[in-house]
């Protein structure tokens, strides 16, 4: 593995934090790292391909999507004949604990959670995304992005 240059700035800290956070959530919900992707930029986001299907939609694959603006949601994957559709939104916090995301996904798979609202944005006078993700940052080599 080739080591990447590690810079000491907010973007680098956010990259390490987001990578660690997505890995922690993936492990909590039973998604292998190869089935997870994330990206930074103007709209940080993550995608996890869920290995299970939910009650009521057993014919469609599921994905767990995260955005820095709206938090987590479970969606039906798009098909050749159907667009993706939201099944449920977690709606608690943008950076929900991995165990909370695991319980949410289990509830969706069991048919207990449907609909919901997006997570409220973090307070403007509180910690920003970099600070919220900092507890998940691990390592000294820049994470691999997909």
Q: Explain this structure to me?
A:
By secondary structure, this protein is an alpha+beta fold. It is built from 3 helices and 5 strands; from the N terminus they run αβββββαα. The protein has helices at residues 10-29, 98-109, 129-133; strands at 36-39, 45-50, 62-67, 71-76, 85-89. The protein has a 5-stranded antiparallel beta sheet, with helices on one face. Strand 3 (62-67) and strand 4 (71-76) form a beta hairpin. The protein is globular and about 40 Å long. The protein starts with 9 loop residues before the first helix and ends in a 13-residue tail after the last helix. The model is unreliable at 1-7 and 141-146 (pLDDT under 50).
List the helices and strands and how they pair.
Layout: H1 10-29, E1 36-39, E2 45-50, E3 62-67, E4 71-76, E5 85-89, H2 98-109, H3 129-133
Helix pairs in contact: 1-2
Question: What is the radius of gyration computed over CA atoms, rounded to a whole number of angstroms?
Answer: 16 Å
Total beta strand runs: 5
Largest sheet report: 5 strands, antiparallel
Number of helices: 3
Q: Note the gap between the termini.
A: 15 Å
Tell me the structural class: alpha+beta
Share in β-strands: 15-25%
* Quaternary state of the chains: single chain
Mean pLDDT: 83
Strand order of the largest sheet: 1-2-3-4-5
How do the SSEs run, as a string of H and E? HEEEEEHH
* Gross morphology: globular
Low-confidence stretches: 1-7, 141-146
Percent of residues in helices comes to: 25-40%
């Amino acid at each position: 593995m080739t080591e990447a240059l590690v810079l000491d700035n907010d973007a680098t800290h956010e990259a390490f934090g987001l990578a660690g956070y997505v890995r922690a959530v993936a492990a909590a919900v039973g998604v292998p790292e190869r089935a997870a992707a994330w990206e930074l930029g103007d709209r940080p986001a993550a995608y996890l391909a869920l290995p299970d299907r939910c009650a009521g939609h057993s014919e469609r694959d599921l994905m767990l999507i995260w955005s820095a603006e709206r938090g987590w949601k479970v969606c039906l994957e798009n098909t050749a004949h159907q667009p993706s559709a939201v099944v449920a939104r977690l709606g608690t916090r943008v950076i929900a604990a991995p165990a909370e995301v695991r319980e949410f996904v289990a509830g969706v798979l069991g048919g207990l959670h449907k609909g919901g609202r997006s997570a409220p944005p973090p307070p403007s006078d509180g910690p920003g995304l970099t600070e919220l993700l900092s507890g998940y940052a691990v390592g000294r080599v820049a994470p691999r992005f997909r």
